Structures are given as C-alpha cells and as structure tokens.
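Entry 14. Structure prediction run on the chain below.
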Amino acid sequence: METLESELTCPICLELFEDPLLLPCAHSLCFNCAHRILVSHCSTSKPLESISAFQCPTCRYVITLNHRGLEGLKRNVTLQNIIDRFQKASISSPNSPTESRRLQPPQRPYTATISGTIAGTIGGGGGGTSGSSARSSPATSSHSHPHANHTNHANHANHTNANHSPAVVAKMDPRISCQFCEQDPPREAVKTCVTCEVSYCDRCLRATHPNKKPFTSHRLVEPVLDTHLRGLTCLEHENEKVNMYCLVDDQLICALCKLVGRHREHQVSSLTERFDKLKDHHPQPQTLENNLTNLVKRNSELENQMAKLIQICQQVEVNTAMHEAKLVEECDELVEIIRQRKQVIAVKIKESKVMKLRKLAQQIANCRQCLERSSALITQAEQSLKENDHARFLQTARNVAERVAMATASSQVLIPDVNLNEAFDNFALDFSREKKILEGLDYLTAPTPPSIRDELCTASHDTITVHWTSEDEFSVTSYELQYTIYTGQTNFISLYNSADSWMIVPNIKQNHYTVHGLQSGTRYIFFVKAINQAGSRNSEPARLKTNTMVSEDSAEFIKG
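Output returned:
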C-alpha cells in the first residue's frame, strides 16, 4: 500500500492527487499545484492570464497553455478513480500508511509560492510508469531547467548541516545566486541542497522543499558553488561519475570505461583502495603522505626565507630613506659651500673693481690736469704768433718759446703712465675642475672582491707572502688578511662562519703581505677583505702551503 501511495502522490504538495491534470508529457499534477506554479510566475505587471507555459516538475517538459489556461488541460479521470478507491481501502485498513499519517500531528505548511519548476523532486511523479521512471532515474530529469545546472539527484541525507562532507564544507560566498529563480537578476541564495545540488533563495527553498517527505531528508547547507557539489564525471562518458581507478593509465574511470571502453583489459582498483594506498596506509617510500610532509617542510623553509626577504625589504626601505636624507643633507652642504664661495668671490671682484677704478680715476685726473696746462700753453703760443706788433711779440715770444720748448722736451714726463692690466681683462673664472668633480658625484659602494694571485704568492718553511689585486684600488681604504689552518673542509663559507681560530691582520695599505710564524709543511686558507666606508667584500679563498723544513741530519745526508 505504501508503494502504491507513493505512485499516487503529487510531486508538488506530496499529498494524494486532488483533481489531477494529465500533462502532455504523460505526468500528472494537482490542479491547485499547477495553479500555484502559474501564480509564482506572476508579478505586479504580469497578470496570471499572460502565463502561457510552465515546466513539468517531474521531467521539465515545457507545457504550453492555450487561451483557456489550465482549464484547457485534460483531467486525469482514471487516476482520480484510482485515488478514490485507494482512499476507501485506506479508511477500511486502520494500519495503512495513509491512516498512520493522518494520526500524526499536523505540520506547519509553507505559505510561500513556487518561483519556478521543482528541481530535485524525487518522490513525486505522474500516474503509472512515468512517475516510477522519473523516480528511478532522477539524472534524466536534470537537463532542461534554465537556472539549475547539473541538478543530478542522489539519496537524500539529513535536513540539517551535520556531518558535512569536505566537498560541502566550503567557504560561504555571499554572492551565490539562487539557481531556481526565473527573475533577472536572481535573488541571493540562502541555502544549498546537497541532494538536489541546487542553491535556493528563501522563497524558492520554501516552495520547493516543504516540510514533508521526501524533502525532510534533503541536506541543506550554507550556499556553496556548484564546483564543490558536483562529483567528478568521466572524461569519455558524459554524465557518468568516476567510481574506479585504472592502474595502467593512472587515471580515474567510470564503470563503462571498464566494461566497454578502452580500459576493459586494464587492471583497475577501487577508489577506496587507491585512496588508502596514496594516504600512506601502505608502506611505500614515495607516497603522498611522505611527499606532503616534505612539501610542508619545504613550505616552512620557504616561509622562513620569505620572512627574511621581507625583513631585508624593510631594511632596504629604512636604509634607502636614510641614504636619501643623507643625500639631501650632503647636497645642501655642497650648495651652501658654493653659495658662500660665490659670495666671497663676488666680494673680491667688487673690491678689485673699486681699487682699479680708484687708480684709473687718479690717472684720469692727472691726464686731465696735464691736458689743461698743455692746452693753456698752446693757446698762449698761438696768440703770440698772431701778434703783429714787433715790440709786444719780442716781449712775450721768448718766454713762450722757452715754455713750449720745456714742455716739448718733457712731454714724456708730463704724459702719465697707463697700466693696461688695470682693465680687469686678465681675470678669469675657471671651475672646470670643480665641475668635473661635481659631475662625478655618486654614492660610494663596497669595493669589488679582491683576487688573490696564487702565481705571485711565495712561501718558506714558516712564512707565506700573499699577493692580491683589486679593481677598485682607489676606492679601497684598507685591506684585511684572514687565515687559518686548512682542515680539509670543502664548504669554505661554513668554515669561514664557524672557525674560531682565524688570525686577522687588519689595516693593510698595500696589495701584499707576508705572514710569519707559520708551521712548516702546513696548508693554510687565506681570505683578503677589501674595506671602505660603504662596507667590505671578501676574496675567494686561496689554499697556500708552507715549505717543509729540512733537518740538519737530512741536510748532511743530502750533501754527502
């Protein structure tokens, strides 16, 4: 009786069909439920009579209405008769499922309208074989809805959010839209049905998931994306989910791949077995668990390295700001020095100008005085020459002639000396050398690492003379020589950082140095450090060996 009742249950209200309509797709629907679907499509500007089509909630077939609307659809009289007989049989049998359901306390119905076609309906169907087919193959009824993508139906779980799978426990995205709304844009989703694999807004959720079976067993979670819900599908067989693992091709396959596909001769494994194997439940040297551990360790090292790099970046910012401030300070000092020197030179030029003009003015005054005297004598002589009276001419001519002769004889004395150097044309401002120095202004960097010249180095039984060269010889303030006994360690950097017996010779001004007091026949490691105000850099290590000292007995034996 319970199986028969499920066949006679409306997919919308989940009650026995009441005044069922026979849809063109052979499924059935209560008249009131169909009316509710049409009402859900209406809006304030769209009357009910304007709705000309809706989708079958079971197979999503588009039902086209004529001008009569729902009255234009045929009544399923046969189904109604079966329901009437079923109800009579249920009343006569007190232990029937229908009677038991009636004895249960009534549940609060949902009052919201349906805003689209029912997605993920499992228990409902039309009369006869069509309804059973829809229930047994839910995947076939999930392709034509305009908003719900891949709404494959599976066995429904609890209605609560407990025991979520990892694929479901995803970060909530507030921008996930309802996949069931037919309005544009769709409303924001409030829940995602894991069973239906569809996200619903509050209105569509209440319309599609009433508090009745089978929807009470649907699992509702916070809205998640489709990619977190859909299972992995086979690459070769559409809509077939993978359920086994091909060991030959090392890939996921479905059952059809093993039965009729190219993997039918291959060795396969179950997903659980392969999962356990990769999860290091199997003792293998190279497993996912071991690789993951190594990767986590590497990530930790990278994080530490990145932290150091970030710290260096911060230090770069601090040092850059310090150097920029120092640059401004130094340039301001240079500008101030130039300004002061400009004032000093300008004062010197003005003082020289005043002194030279004073001398020139004195010379001009002397010349003017001589010119006035000479002009007066010329005027007097010209007047004497014009005198026609012999007595008067003879009286003045002798005196004038003496004065003119005296003036002519001493003309060189009367004319003042003119110093041409007083014209200030031998003065020049030449800052070419200073300009070149200013053009060469740049920040000082640590010198390039010096290079130890092995071919120039010499040794005795207790001394080694080390020679080196440097490309930045003029920028190097001093050199520092470091050496220690070579122990055979090949990692020189580690040796340099860890050795406690390094001998240091500081403040070397030349490009060579002789170390005394060394052990005979011993190999040493030498570093040379070039130093200036900006920092220092080390040379590559050089291994040099002292000579073996010959004893007196050995010397006599060799001599003999």
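The chain has 14 helices and 20 strands.
Filed with the rest of this week's runs.
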